[in-house]
Write a structure and sequence with these properties.
The radius of gyration is 21 Å and the shape is globular. The protein has helices at residues 31-45, 57-64, 68-80, 133-139, 178-183, 188-196, 214-220; strands spanning 84-87, 91-94, 109-111, 120-130, 146-156, 159-169, 202-211, 227-237, 241-250, 255-257. Strand 5 and strand 6 (159-169) form a beta hairpin. The strands form 3 sheets. The protein has a 6-stranded antiparallel sheet with strand order 4-5-6-9-8-7. The chain is of the alpha+beta class.
Length: 262
């Protein structure tokens, strides 16, 4: 697909949908997709930050020299991908992990009975270390590069339910100290968004059933070999840049993993 080329401040019309690099086959990109790409570039550059109101469809149409309907279709896709949020009578805002509705976008563990709740977090370990070959490969960094490591427990109504470890690229989060991680009690993605300008916009998860080993059983307060749900996640920010590896163990007594397919 041909991507539209524009700086965040450009008012030029998007390039022709049929253009292609020399020697390559021409490809077709619908006009609304090109406008979507331009809006994504503005989001990535930080012109419109998390939680901020973006220009109206009419203003964007004038800016990109296209119809308002074309802009609306582009924003429809961005809203479907949870990158922007429409608010009736107020406009369209950049999605943020600070909102209550967004906190459950990446937390798919739901109670069998009652409404979803956000868990209490207790950090067991936090430190900077050198990336192993496996973690480096997933984060697209070099083996031995600095990473921020955290192990934490998440509990619902006082019952330990999620034991997880996560790794973040150290260069991207230079100012993320162990002390800051230990004192922060809210959603981790909200911290990374507000203090480092890094938004998690999508993730890939691998899920399988495992049996609790002695270490996990002790921390979770369950018997050894209790069935657990193992969830390995790789999270991405704009431009499909990987920025987090997360490995979680879920206790599913009273909870289940819920995913909506469409």
């Amino acid at each position: 697909m041909t991507s539209a080329q524009s700086s965040s401040s450009s008012n030029a019309a998007p390039p022709s949908a049929g253009t292609a690099a020399p020697g390559s086959s021409p490809t077709f990109s619908p006009l609304y997709q090109q406008i979507k790409t331009l809006i994504m570039q503005n989001l990535q550059s930080g012109e419109w930050r998390a939680g901020e109101l973006i220009p109206s469809e009419m203003e964007l149409a004038a800016r990109f020299k296209v119809s308002q309907g074309t802009v609306r279709k582009a924003i429809d896709e961005l809203a479907a991908e949870n990158l922007v949020v429409r608010r009736q009578g107020k406009g369209t805002f950049v999605a943020t992990h600070q909102e209550a509705r967004a906190q459950f976008r990446f937390l798919r563990l739901k109670p069998d009975v009652g409404d979803a709740q956000y868990p209490d977090n207790v950090i067991i370990e936090a430190k900077r270390l050198r990336a192993s070959a496996d973690i480096a490969r997933q984060l697209d960094i070099k083996t031995g590069d600095s990473v921020v490591f955290m192990k934490r427990m998440q509990s619902f109504d006082g019952a330990p339910t999620i034991l997880e470890e996560l790794w973040l690229p150290g260069m991207l989060f230079k100012g993320l100290s162990v002390e800051r991680m230990l004192q922060y009690k809210g959603p981790m993605y909200a911290l990374l968004e507000t203090e480092f300008g890094t938004q998690m916009i999508r993730a890939v998860e691998n899920i399988r059933a495992v049996a609790a080993d002695a270490h996990a059983a002790e921390l979770l307060g369950i018997a050894v070999n209790t069935p657990l749900l193992s969830v390995n996640r790789l999270s991405f920010t704009y431009s499909d840049k990987p920025v987090e590896v997360r490995r979680s163990l879920y206790v599913t007594n009273g909870h289940h993993y819920e995913n909506e397919l469409s």
